[in-house]
Amino acid sequence: FNTVKWVLFFFCLSSTFRSATNGLFSVTLSTVEKRFQFSSFQSSILASATEFGQVPALVFIMLCGHNVKQRPLFIGFGTIAVSFGCVLCFLPQFL
Questions:
Q1: For the chain, which residues score pLDDT lower than 50?
Q2: What pLDDT was estimated at residue 79?
Q3: DSSP 31-88
């Protein structure tokens, strides 16, 4: 798994799942809003929180990323974090 082909494969797989999550999130937002009796304001906060959550990560990468010697390790941890976020996004549909 330590070749460029595998890195490209996992990066494409991660991008596909993230795109599917972003696309399906708007569809499931109305279901979550009805099930948990959110107001429109609360559901809009939930929708925008997915974008605001990326800001601390970007600040961290800008400040500390240029000195990191193991960038693939950080990319791997970032991919795992995005995967965890995708699971959390759809968790209410399965509960």
A1: none
A2: 78
A3: HHHHHTT--HHHHHHHHHHHHHTHHHHHHHHHHHGGG-S-HHHHHHHHHHHHHHHHHH
Q: How far apart are CA 58 and CA 55, in angstroms?
A: 5
- Domain ranges in the chain are 4-94
**Helix/strand number for the chain, H first, E second:** 4, 0
| Span 78-94, pLDDT tens digits | 778 877 877 777 777 67
Query: What is the C-alpha separation between 51 and 49, in angstroms, rounded?
Result: 5
Residues 14, 83: contact at Cβ < 8 Å? yes
Calpha distance 31→95 (Å, rounded) = 13
Q: Are 81 and 16 in contact (CB under 8 A)?
A: no
Joined together, the tokens standing for residue 76 give: 């791997």
